Amino acid sequence: MTEEGALVFQSDDVDVEKASHSPTEPEEHFNTEGIAHQDALGPKPKRRHFFSPLDRSHADAVHEDAKTVEYTPEEDYKVKRKIDNTVLPLVICSFIFNQFDRTNIGNAHVIPEFNQNFDITDNDKWTLALSIFYVGYCLLEMPANILQRHIGANRFFFISLTVWGIASLSFVYSKGYGALLALRILVGIGEAGFYAGVIYYLSFWYRRHELALRISLCMTGTYPGAIGGLLAFGLTRAHTSLLTGWQFLFLIEAIPTMAMAFAILLFLPSFPFSASFLTKRERAIAQARVNRDHRPQSHGGMTGWQGLKAVIMDLNCWMFMLIYASFNVGAATISYFLPTLIKELGFTSINAQGLTVAPYAVGWFVVFFQAWHSDKTKDRGYHTMLSCCISFVGYIILATCANKSVGASYFALFLVVGGNYSLFPLVMSWAANCFSPTSKRGVGTAFIVSISNSVSIASPQIYFDPETQFRKGHGISAG
Fold this sequence. Notes:
By secondary structure, the chain is mostly helical. It has one domain (about 75-479): Growth Hormone, Chain: A, CATH 1.20.1250. It contains 23 helices and no strands. Helix 13 packs antiparallel against helix 19, helix 17 runs antiparallel to helix 21 (about 405-435) and helix 20 (about 380-400) packs antiparallel against helix 21 (about 405-435). It is found in: Membrane.
């Protein structure tokens, strides 16, 4: 792949493992342990304040050590597993809570008390409440990415989780349609930059052919959807003198988000060069793994504006944006409408919550297999086409079998969930693979998410025909 980033994803001709212990720099026999430059720096300085930028001298030292470090395949595997065991659990948990707080409104909507509390009297009010989430989300996506690069991932994610966690918690005691719209805007502002930021963050830790599988583990709405459906199935039955079932749903799902924010702040390293869970040699190895694969840059390089200009001039970026915007029409709505679609098949509100679990659970296997096989074969394009076909077939069945077959319609939801959600890790890892240098990658992923989600402002509006079980909406999603 060229520095400019070709749209086709393919591995380098040079074997990465072999290159990892055959450096070509003039200092071939110097600093093979990968600690000399880090030792020369002394202790890591403390930041002056919360928004202080990351220390560049330590970043440069690790990058210099990474140039000459020699390591075995066993050490490579050990470092990768330490990253998997430390970084991935924190990112996975934060994304689970992200999906809880973003989509629990869909589970609550099938409960009459929730609609009465927020004065949701018709489908138009409901779809507006869903659409307005994306206004702040889209406007702040790229500024949020620049902020993350400046202060580090742990501090940025801490701010993000705290803002949307407080907004989600506020649903419990809010009332009226105006309050609903205001809180949806605040949740969108809190989540701005989180999705693209996680992809950008993971690209600093993993090689290109390792990325899609990790994104599928960290960033798919399938298992959060399954867990959220189970929680909704149980919590919506709860009632006390102070809280009803839908309020318990928002309360129980918002509090862990607040706790997770502090866990991210304390334990998530911003970049490999600042990872305290790795030794100095392991930090050099972690940096060398990705440097020799796609040369990420934690500091320096393009400014945010230069990166934006490079992205806008790149045809690949606009093609990725078209792909993302197309499948996001369905993906942005299915999580909100899934309980409603199941209820429309003739099930009660409570049973509709429980029946969301199976499509999400099966969908997770589709997501995982597609991402795993994509990494294994080093292909993104054909896997993306297959996922689109799976989702397309599901929407066609939904559009043609409404009022005819409950079984066929329910089966179609499995296809739609699996097809839509498997596209996220495929397309975004493909984009991350193709954008270089790193400053362009960060702005590029944020640009794709931001501009494509502008379509998501209108996406819920395609489900304007509840009287025909949303046949036209399914047809538009299929298209």
